[in-house]
Design brief:
Blueprint lengths: L5 H10 L16 E4 L2 E5 L12 H14 L7 H5 L2 H14 L3 E5 L2 H12 L5 E5 L4 H9 L3 E5 L4 H9 L6 E6 L11 H10 L3 E5 L14 H4 L8 E5 L9 E5 L1 H10 L1 H4 L6 H16 L2 H20 L10 E7 L1 H14 L1 E2 L2 E2 L9 E6 L6 H13 L2
Parallel strand pairs: 2-11, 4-5, 4-6, 6-7, 7-8
Antiparallel strand pairs: 1-2, 3-9, 8-9, 10-13, 12-13
Helix pairs in contact: 2-12, 4-12, 5-6, 13-15
Amino acid sequence: MDPNRLGAFLQERREQHLYRQRKVITGPQGPVVQVDGRPLLSFCSNDYLGLANHPQVVKALQQGAERYGVGSGASHLISGHSEAHHALEQELAEFVQRPRALLFSTGFMANLGVITALFGKGDAVFEDRLNHASLIDAGLYCGARLQRYLHADPQSLQNHLSKSAAAQKLIATDGVFSMDGDIAPLPELARLAAEHKAWLMVDDAHGFGVLGDNGRGTAEHFGLGNDTTIYMATLGKALGTFGAFVAGSEDLIETLIQLARSYVYTTALPPAVAEATRASLELAQQETWRRDKLRSLIDRFRQGAQQLGLTLMDSATPIQPLVLGDNKTASRYSEALLEQGYLISAVRPPTVPEGSARLRITFSAAHDEHHIDQLLEALDLIR
């Protein structure tokens, strides 16, 4: 972009109601957050199990810092791989019932590292049209032929697969789609992967810790076991900390250690964060009431929204989008809610398709029923 055009570009964004601004939070995450000294009831965090400020998680972080210091010092392959990292990888692998797991600093880096390490020229990558940007970018960067099938449409995927003569094929999908809240049709995708001898990769950032009886994510939700070849999930959502991991076979993980550039060439996650995540993972397994409460809150909101005549997308997850259409209306709703003391961001293109600007309402086990009722009343007032 021409540097002389930057000011004009920003003005155009403002006029199109697409300008994004950060809000400064002055306290911890929770149902109520402090923004510019003002308490707001928040419904836009991914802290699904309410663990981001849990006392045991905070204590584990503090103790980890006392033991390991603040920084990891280097990449995992130099001198940055601590016993805290190693223990967390083993515990994550055991939890998701895969042979091995590998920590990455972010989910974006995990997806980029996996796909660019394993696929390239002569291969084909098939992705859902609504996949997260990290999967799409990885598919573009790796050099393989990227083909995007219709959202959650196995027949569309079948049509693409049947025409491909690629040396290797990868089917990559979100487990839970981050903007719509719906769940990928994994049983059908697993069947197609087996039929066409393709890899299947699931980015379960929004399903891990939330879906399934034990919180093992989208595959457990469908009773699939280990049918997904490559499993990725993030630690900054349901577990409330930071980072990501990839789980799979022994050979897969060892190959990523050798070839995944976003793993090899970056400083390791601070060991104290790994210790906090270990505490969080233990809580997620022990306190099953968190998932039960979350499902109850989701049901309460959906029933209340239906009574008010609000049209929600078909989602049984903590992500409950209220599609409003144009950017101006979505921004108006968000601003009106802010005036009433509610923090819900308007999500607009290019994050979502044109004409589908929305409020992305999310719930946490830290919310209570009266919070849901208050939100419904607020939404009713601004219609």
